[in-house]
Amino acid sequence: MWRKCNKCSAPIFSEDVKAGHYICPKCGGYFRIHARRRIEMLADAGSFEEWDAGHPVSNPLELSGYPRKLSELQEKTGLDEAVITGKMSMGGHETAVGVMDGRFIMGSMGRNVGEKIAKAAERATGLGLPLLLFCCSGGARMQEGIVSLMQMAKTAAALKRHSDAGLLFISILTDPTTGGVTASFAMLGDIILAEPGALIGFAGPRVIEQTIGQKLPEGFQRAEFLVEHGFVDAILPREESRETLIKLLSLHEQETEEKKKEDEKENRRAEEAAAGGVTAGGADTGSSAKPEPQGEVKRRSSDPKDGPEISAWERVKLSRKQGRLTGLDYIHGIFEEFMELHGDRAYGDDQAIVGGIAYFRGRPVTVIAQQKGRSTKENIERNFSMPSPEGYRKALRLMKQAEKFGRPVFCFVDTPGAFCGMEAEERGQGEAIARNLFELSALKVPVLSVVIGEGGSGGALALAVADEVWMMENSIYSVLSPEGFASILWKDSKRADEAAGVMRITAKDLKALGIIEQVIPEPEPASKKNAEELCRALAGGFEEFLTRYGTLSGEELAAHRYERFRSM
Asked: Over the stretch 336-378, which tens digit does the pLDDT of each residue have?
């Protein structure tokens, strides 16, 4: 009956807490709420209909003990996964909803969480419903490796379709909302609200403090901090959440009705004009042209030549080796007349990402690369190819420019990960990555990404939501570093070599998993010595890529890209 508040340590009566929206009556501190309890607090009585319960266990890394842990959590929590999705009404307004629950592996996002959220967005789109997502997560699920990382792209792509249908998405951030969830669906809402005091950020406070060697200021990464820095629309007091959300649903429902009336009027005008043999604009219609049927785009199979097999850890070391070819080496070796363009048009120019326009065999293209330095001084200037938010926003600006002018986009991925620093969080690291995933999923020009060295987590994925992803034979692509994986799962970073073998992060592994389309052979590790040979091989592949994708319409490209990630 009586418990101690974990914030102020005062004795509190349990029934008072339940009746008071799970807020401490002494200090006002917020307790975390079970997902089903939150739905009960918000939904009209008896209106909630659950969707997509009971997905089979996903264990892509085949970790021993992981299925048993899931089974134990399912029995303990009564949940099938870390999110509940469904449909409900609030104040008579019907909406799709997803609520995450931190009791289930800290709300981490694995394949099933991504699948349930993507399906909820798809069903909401099909039913013409708004979508509410209550986020509570520690980030991507380490136990599912690269597959968990792909859920960021999957959910962002599903939300892009929901957005393109003119539907409302409200994201509600609760304590904590971090990692890959922050860098995907959590920061993509038309309206983003946050509960008071919620921890929200791409990298956790402890990681940032270890990175910069400084103590973080009071209130850093809390909900109020994000409002102050322009990433969240408003604070949502829990006791006002139902009333506020009903008001927002009502307001947007009215807007939707007005839009429907305008569309009906426009359709009537078009029909009347067509009956007279002219379009609504007054031109002679003649015969109505039908779009050509979409051609099937098949994934290509390309494996490296047979040679001595080396360990995953050796591949990791080769991907990081000093003197390995950089993004600019490939740009200058493959493209002509490259002209670098600078700046994100909002804050600054991040040298960790270079990009601009060039010719590829006479055709204008846009090229973007995460750029490592060739010396210690240049590495410092380029922040060791760890981009800040303005780097991702610069890349997105160039991609949208490419779309406007019909230029294919080529990306070269090579980063240990997005920059983990206080200033990166202040400028919206998670939102910047999420926005790239969101927009790239539906970009209406061909996009090809090549992992040339390290492909580190969401920082790499932000340039790899492409029609095809290729990898150099000695590159890696992972949800986090082997050192980080070993530290989190085994509390021993010295087991990084063992972790590399478990994580399935090499080009060969990821081709087998269906995450990438091609492995580019390196008869010897990429360096200045064999740069011309590798660039010539890549250029031939790029020509074939443009032949395959260059004839597709923008809609066909977006559809293909959507299905590529949707199947993961």
From this structure: 999 899 888 888 899 999 999 999 999 999 999 999 998 999 9
HSE of 12 in the Cβ direction (CA atoms, 13 Å)? 23
pLDDT, one tens digit per residue, over 491-546 is 999 999 999 999 999 999 999 999 999 999 999 999 999 999 999 999 999 999 99
**Token digits of residue 261:** 């009336």
Sign of CA dihedral 267, 269, 275, 277: negative
Q: Which residues contact 110 (CB under 8 A, 6 or more apart)?
A: 58, 81, 82, 140, 141, 143, 144, 147, 148, 151
**Helices H, strands E: what count in the chain?**
21, 18
- How many other CB atoms are there within 10 angstroms of residue 255's CB atom? 12
The torsion of the CA quartet 546, 393, 220, 176, rounded to 10 degrees, works out to -30
The SS3 assignment for 11 reads: strand
Count of C-beta atoms within a 10 Å radius of residue 263: 11
pLDDT given at position 174: 96
- Distance in angstroms (rounded) separating the CA atoms of residues 108 and 102: 8
CB atoms within 10 A of CB 243: 12
- 430-452: average pLDDT: 96
What's the whole-model pTM score? 0.80
Q: Which residue is listed with tokens 């003119």?
A: 166
Amino acid at 168: L
Q: How far apart are CA 156 and CA 496, in angstroms?
A: 31
Residue bearing tokens 């739905």: 39
**Using an 8 Å Cβ cutoff, are 116 and 81 in contact?**
yes
**Rounded distance between C-alpha atoms, residue 490 and residue 505, angstroms:** 18
**How far is it, in rounded angstroms, from Cα 368 to Cα 350?**
12
